[in-house]
Amino acid sequence: MAKRKIVKVGDSVLREKxxxxxxxxxxxxxxxxxxxxxxxxxxxxGLAAPxxxxxxxxxxxxxxxxxxxxLINPVVLESSGEQIGMEGCLSVxxxxxxxxxxxxxxxxxxxxxxxxxxxxxxxxLCVAFCHEIDHLDGILFIDKIIPDYKED
Length: 152
Ligand code: CO
Hints:
152 residues, 5-stranded antiparallel beta sheet, two-stranded antiparallel sheet
């Protein structure tokens, strides 16, 4: 387990599409463990593999610092509703903004052992999943900020 260096905005790796994970080995587990360490050490609620320079469809999310979600090759099956909330990103320092996201989603994913798993997420957990899945497509939250948005 080790903390890895977080890539910052401007690096092209954040703009590329991550590749599907096909090998579920110790190296993958090591990457996931390191990403969890890096996320917690940086006080983040999520981290995607491109943010540590790895173009693999891997992301981790933990919005309460306890329950950890590991997303490998995630696919959004369904989404509904909408919510607008403030976001930030460990790769985009000192910038936040309001982004519109679905309120709930059903996401198909794989575990670190390659087993299929489905997550039903809503509220802020859904925001975190959306943000991290976007990273795997080379999309950053700054692309989606609603200009001049003010909360009611
Ligand atoms: Co981010």
